[in-house]
Prior knowledge:
Largest interface: A-B, 35 and 34 residues
Strand order of the largest sheet of chain B: 2-1-5-3-4
Structural class of chain B: alpha+beta
CATH class of the largest domain in chain A: Alpha Beta
Helix content of chain A: 25-40%
CATH topology of the largest domain in chain B: Ubiquitin-like (UB roll)
Strand order of the largest sheet of chain A: 5-6-11-7-8
Oligomer: heterodimer
Shape of chain A: globular
Mean pLDDT of chain A: 93
Order of helices and strands of chain A: EEHEHEEEHHHHHHEEHEEEEEEEHHH
Low-confidence stretches of chain B: none
CATH topology of the largest domain in chain A: Uridine Diphospho-n-acetylenolpyruvylglucosamine Reductase, domain 3
Radius of gyration of chain A: 20 Å
Number of helices of chain B: 5
Distance between the termini of chain A: 48 Å
CATH superfamily of the largest domain in chain B: Beta-grasp domain
CATH architecture of the largest domain in chain B: Roll
Number of strands of chain A: 15
Strand content of chain A: 15-25%
Number of helices of chain A: 12
Distance between the termini of chain B: 58 Å
Shape of chain B: globular
Structural class of chain A: alpha+beta
Low-confidence stretches of chain A: 1-9, 293-301
CATH architecture of the largest domain in chain A: 2-Layer Sandwich
Amino acid sequence: xxxxxYSHGMPVLHPTTIEEATSLLAADPDAMLLAGGxxxxxxxxxxxxxxxxxxxxxxxxxxxxxxxxxPVAATLTIGAAVTYTELMxxxxxxxxxxxxxxxxxxxxxxxxxAGTLGGNLGTxxxxxxxxxxxxxxxxxxxxxxxxxTRSMPVIDFMVGVKRTAIEPGELITEITVPVVDGWQGYxxxxxxxxxxIAVASVGLVIDRERQSVAVALGSVGPTILRCPxxxxxxxxxxxxxxxxxxxxxxxxxxxxxxxxxxxxxxxxSTADYRRHAVGVLAKRLARRAARPGDDQxxxxx
Amino acid sequence: xxxxxxxHVNGEERPVRDSWLGENLLDVLRDRLGxxxxxxxxxxxxxxxxxxxxxxxxxxxxxxxxxxxxGQAIVTVEGIAPQGAPSDVQQAFVDAGAVQCGFCTPxxxxxxxxxxxxxxEPGDTEIREELAGNVCRCTGYGRIIDAxxxxxxxxxxxxxxxxxx
Lengths: 301, 165
């Protein structure tokens, strides 16, 4: 590997292109990837992890820091190193409002300035705030290595608690989501209103054009869960002309979501509470979706 | 040990000669460079007492790998204002009684400078949300919020004064 890529002769490497990064990874598949550092540095500070080989910092790769909107295909492709702060700002916030909602609930301004969407996906915590939204949007993730590029649905990429389908030498380069016509949102509960890891979370996406509903759950299973039964039930119950649903339908939707959850009891909460909470959150989001006039979006922002 | 690199801190090039790979910026600032203003408490981004600016972005220095911050402009609380001449935010904290034990103060000073750059006249809710990552165990936050609003008012009258001299 070329020593010219070393910064000041020490092993934190600052590639500026994806190609440089993947060739560094090909040379040292054990190299540590460093995105925003908000997960990795906690592990290092706690002594749970110690970089032994090279550290490849991703923050100076312009292609990972950018995004592109394709109005014809109605897609938004987000570079893996785009931060939560950037996702909360226009025009991204209007293109994918649920992702902006979720980003706003991540940590504090300090964390949102550093943490990235690609890092959220790479860590693949069941509590990752961006992940239920990506799952509900049927997002795809693009992985790039020196050998080439492949894409897969985000829901298939997350295979377990903090486990993904990434292969050695691969880098998460971008995430593509559809720009959907319809209400979408994210809600979570935790022990505080801010700076909190989700005890239960829900992403909801209503697609008016396809007359479909997508709902995905966080922190109530080993990975993010979709709820096909609840989705089909609500899609069949919504009056698509007026975008309303009956209170009974919303109630049933919440119950089906709770039933689809697979929570455990741990130091953060109990399985019973999580199952209850995820049903309430789903019902609450569906009520906002079905009665847009009562939407709190924009208030106290 | 003995990772060698140079950081750009408060306008100066500061060589770091004895760091270890993975060492966080907070520890390098305090233990290697002798800048004791930034405080360390949680070491996991929860408390905000280590807040600094890196390339104008407010971050927790405990979550920045120091050796990854080469070539970036780092500003700590020591770089906010010359010694003996506090910034308007620092003075407002003193005037409003927003400092008690003082441990969280440097992080809050950095966060408030950053907040008022982005939002010159924040409302009460906005201040609380924006400062949610800075934990204070003494004040109950009321006087901190008073201090922020005091700076906003003073800066606004300053701006108005310039517009209509």
